[in-house]
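Fill in residues.
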């Protein structure tokens, strides 16, 4: 009864204006939240590099190079958020409740999905800088471990990007173009599911990668064992992000 009442009210809403408003809110969510993760991660990386430079001034060049590589990867999730924000703001969309819900969902998916990956990649980069500052001769092993770990931390953001793009394009919602509350909420929930579900794996994998970078600097001869354990642990940490990805797809394609 309550849903019928809400749908009756929704039929009289100016969805042209509200869909446009949803585009702008979603674009702001995608880029605003996405900037937090990348900014915090890159800042942590830079802070650890500064401290390591003070400890090992002779290794400044190596530390700066490692920092820039680590920051470039941490920036990836922010670039994903920027792309989705441009799509949200500038692509044309049909006015309807369903499309409005999908757009807000896309903003949440990409914005929240960028948080964990950006911070996680920064954690790995910062711990790598700390490790190289303690043992400059371990740079090769530490950098390789950092890159592998950061690649893992970025995968939840890739899942979020895929879900966000599907929601932004919204082709599966165009057949409704009315005031179907169930479809609109399902689209929004899919974005929230993927965005929140990507935050934990991104952060968790970053913690694992940071620990591996620290271990690679302390015991360079155990590099292969350290990397193997990091990849195993990171893969398990990623599993909940995959669950979120599956549920998001169910909400998008199978809720009628």
């Amino acid at each position: 009864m309550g849903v019928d009442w809400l749908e009756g009210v929704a039929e009289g809403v100016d969805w042209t204006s509200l869909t446009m408003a949803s585009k702008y809110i979603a674009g702001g969510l995608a880029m605003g939240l996405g900037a937090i993760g990348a900014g915090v991660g890159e800042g942590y990386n830079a802070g650890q590099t500064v401290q390591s430079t003070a400890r090992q001034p002779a290794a400044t060049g190596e530390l700066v190079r490692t920092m820039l590589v680590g920051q470039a990867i941490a920036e990836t999730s922010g670039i994903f958020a920027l792309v989705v924000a441009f799509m949200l703001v500038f692509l044309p969309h049909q006015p309807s409740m369903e499309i409005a819900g999908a757009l807000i969902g896309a903003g949440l998916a990409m914005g929240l999905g960028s948080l964990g990956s950006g911070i996680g990649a920064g954690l790995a980069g910062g711990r790598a800088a700390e490790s190289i500052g303690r043992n400059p001769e371990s740079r090769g092993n530490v950098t390789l471990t950092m890159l592998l770990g950061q690649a893992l931390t970025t995968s939840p953001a890739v899942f979020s990007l895929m879900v966000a793009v599907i929601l932004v394009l919204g082709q599966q919602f165009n057949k409704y173009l009315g005031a179907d509350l169930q479809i609109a909420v399902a689209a929004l929930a899919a974005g929230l599911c993927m965005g929140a579900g990507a935050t934990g794996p991104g952060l968790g994998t970053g913690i694992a990668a940071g620990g591996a970078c620290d271990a690679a600097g302390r015991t360079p001869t155990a590099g292969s064992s350290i990397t193997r354990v990091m990849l195993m642990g990171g893969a398990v940490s990623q599993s909940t992000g995959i669950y979120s990805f599956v549920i998001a797809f169910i909400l998008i394609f199978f809720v009628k």
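The chain has a mean pLDDT of 89.
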